[in-house]
Amino acid sequence: MSVNVNRGLTDQFYRYKMPKLLAKVEGKGNGIKTVIVNMVEIAKALNRPPMYPTKYFGCILGAQVNYDNKNDRYIVNGAHEAYKLQDLLDGFIQKYVLCPSCANPETVLKVKKSVISTSCKACGFTGTISTQDKLTTYILKYPPESDSKSAEDKKAEKGKSAKKDRSKKKDTKNGDANGSSSPKHDSDGNEGNGHNGVDEDDDDWCEDTDADAVAKRMEGLLSVGAKGLMHTNDLDKTTEERLQILLHFIQKKKQSCPESFDVVAQKDIVAEANRLEVKDKAVLALCEELFDENILSQMKVHRLLLLRFTNENARAQKYLLRGIELTIKCFKKDLVPKVAHILKALYDLDILEEKTILDWGAKPSKKIVGKELAEEIHGRAAPFLKWLKEAEEEESSDGEEEDEEEDDVDVHFNDRVIGTKIVTQTQESPKKSTAPQEAADDIDIDAI
Fold it and tell me: Residue 165 falls within a domain, yes or no?
C-alpha cells in the first residue's frame, strides 16, 4: 500500500508516493526491538540513504539503532508501533526531504565544508539545512553519494583509489622488507585498524544506554509531542512508582528553575505526566516538591503550573486537596491554623472551584491524614466553608428574586396621551390607578 510522501496533502492523484511503513516487533525484555521491514523501499522513494530516517527515529525516541548488513534490516531498539513511526517519518520528510519553496520531494542533499545544502530539481531552490541535532552530525559524517558525477569523474576517482591502494601495498612491502613494524594506515594516511579508515572507537551505530545518558538525549532531542510517543517499561509500573518518577523529573526541572518554572519547563512537566498517564494525580507530586510551611506564597508563584493540571479538571482538583492535606500533615504546627486561609487562596486564585471545595468539606476523609487530623483540618476550615456556602445560597436567591421581579411588573403603553408615556403597574393591584405616583406606592419593596 502506498501513501503520499507529503501526507499533509490528501490529493489521491499526488504523484509522489512511498510505501506505507511496516514494522515488526521482535524479542522480549531488554532485547526487544523493532525491525522496519521496508525501510529500503521507503528510502528509495525519498531519495535518501536508508540509515538517515532510521537514525532520525533513534534521535527522536532516544533509542539505539542498528543495521543488519547480512539480512539488510534496519532496527530501532524498543517496541514501537508502525503508525507512530509513520508519524515520526513525516517529521523527517518535512525537515530533510521536502523543498522549503515548492514542497516537492525532488531535493538533493550535498555536504561541503561542514555545511549541508539542499537543492530542488523541480523549482531550482537552493538553501542549507541549519538544524543542529544528532542527525545533521551523522549526515556531515556520512554524506549521501552524489548522483551528479559524470562517468569520467567516477572513473577518475576509481583510478585514484586504485593508485592509492597500490602505493599502500608497496609501502607495506618495503616496510616488511626493512623489518619495520609500522602501524597500519588508511587511504588518507591516518592510523587506523584497516577497516576502510573507520576507527572502532568511532561507532556511531550505538549510543550509551545508561539512565543518565537516555535522560540527557531526551532533554536535548525530544519534543513535547514526541515524548508521548516514546514506549518504555514505565507504564508497566504501579501508579506510586510512576508518581515517584514524575517527582524526580520535577526535582531536576526545579534545579534549573529554582524560583519558578518557565513556560517550557511547565510544558515538559505536563508532557511527562501524560507520558506516565498520571496527569490527574500529578498534583500530589507537585505538592510534595513545591510546598512547605510557606505554602501561601508558593501557591501564587506556581499558580500557572497548577492551573495546567486543575483547570476544568475536577479529579485533579480533588487530588490537589489531598496533596494539601498531606502538606499540612508534614508542617502541622505551622499550617493547621492557616487552613481557612489556604483554602481561600486556592479559591481566589481560581485553582479550585467552589463545588470541589464544598464537596471536600462535606465528606472528611480519614484515609489521607488520619481521623483525628482530618477532623481538626475540617474544623479549622469550617468558617470558610460556611462563608462559601452562604455566598452561594445568597447568589442563588438573588437570582430567583430578580426573576420574580421581572414577572410581577407589566409594561403598558398609553397611546392616548400625546408623547407615548410608559406606565408600570403590579399584577397585585386590584384597581387601575390614574395617578402614577399612587401605583408606585402600592409596590412591595421587600419583594423587590
Answer: no
Nearest to 77 by CA among 263, 175, 207: 207
The enclosing domain of 261 has a CATH number of 1.25.40.180
DSSP state of 311: T
The C-alpha cell that represents 211 in the structure block: 539512565
Residue 385 maps to a domain = yes
Paired with 66 in beta bridges are 75
Mean pLDDT, 10 residues at a time, the chain of 448 residues: 86 88 90 93 94 93 88 91 93 92 91 88 88 82 66 50 58 50 43 41 47 55 47 77 92 82 90 91 92 92 93 92 92 92 93 92 82 89 89 65 50 43 48 46 46
CB 440 within 8 A of CB 448: no
Question: Where in the sequence is the domain holding 34, given as residue range(s)?
Answer: 2-100
Instruction: Give the 3-state secondary structure of residue 116.
Output: strand
Q: Are 21 and 89 in contact (CB under 8 A)?
A: yes
- For 62, 217, 322, the CA distances from 142, given in Å and listed in that order, are 20, 21, 55
**Which residue intervals of 257-302 are DSSP H helices?**
263-275, 282-290, 295-301
Residues 30 and 49 in one domain: yes
Whether 270 and 389 share a structural domain: yes
| Residue 43 located in a structural domain | yes
